């Protein structure tokens, strides 16, 4: 129940932030929106499981301790370690399932999530533009439209920026149509067909002061922009690290991820480190199900409160402290400090603390 609560919170946050906006803007259909919601579950469950397991064990063992059940079992000759054994075995099995979600199902779902969004955009590239909002997804470009009617954009603007962010060209069209194309070389292109066009061009200004502008008009015009990273294709498209499975991350850690031509040994080492850290971070998240349950057992027995109102905030405090340690370990970016090992420090710390607390609780 605790895990389901955390899953609901995480999924609801993503639905409000991504899916509902995509449906409202017409970028995806309601059916595709439902598919996107389903695909969110494998990605959020691994993060909800540690907190859910921690909360459940704290409530259960807190109640057992408060009602004297732990004392009764100890009096009958059953040690606290023996009492905790079934829970720890169960937590280890859940951790294995969480590892599979983190390394295989989760990245595959996130991959498919992006593919659906990209596919919907390719079927009708006008979905890239939300009426009244400025689109900044293309490098050095901004786009905006007053309204969208199917595949047509009404009162469409395009601004081209220089390296300093200054506008060097602006194009206005009463009507525009976006078309996705793929050249023979495999490059993705976004073609913009404009009607009743007015263009303003300015030379780059070194001083920052407005430069003289030249103007031109045309009944029709066509613009083209590279769109490979804005509208990726299903086959061989650019994958971010969070979309890679465990095997893909391991392969990337051996060869280097996005290593530029002629890279120095330092750059190569850094690009090998990034996927390895991502891989280790996913494994530590899965193992945290076991380590947090291990900590929760002696902690609940020591606190000995039956009220959920006490144990639930305690679980949240412990989980937040653990995740704070995990985030701190992830701040290290220097390969010489081996961040792929440092991400294991929070789990190791929790296990050592748990062993100490369990031995202490077993004596009383």
Q: Percent of residues in beta strands?
A: 15-25%
> How many discrete structural domains?
2
Q: Mean pLDDT score, rounded?
A: 80
Report how far apart the termini are. 31 Å
Major β-sheet, in short?
Answer: 5 strands, antiparallel
**So how many helices?**
9
Q: Work out the radius of gyration.
A: 27 Å
Q: Name the strands of the widest sheet in spatial order.
A: 1-2-3-4-5
Total E-strand runs: 5
Written as H for each helix and E for each strand, in order along the chain, the element string is HHHHEEEEEHHHHH
Please state the overall shape, judged from the principal axes of the Cα atoms: elongated
* Helical proportion, percent range: 55-70%
**Structural class, judged by helices and strands?**
alpha+beta
Question: What does this entry look like structurally?
Answer:
There is one protein chain. With 364 residues, the chain is of the alpha+beta class. The protein folds into 2 domains: 2-122 and 258-363, no CATH class; 138-226, no CATH class. The protein is built from 9 helices and 5 strands. It has a 5-stranded antiparallel β-sheet, with no helix packed on it. Helix 1 (2-24) runs antiparallel to helix 2 and helix 6 packs antiparallel against helix 7. The radius of gyration is 27 Å and the shape is elongated. Residues 232-237 have low confidence and may be disordered.
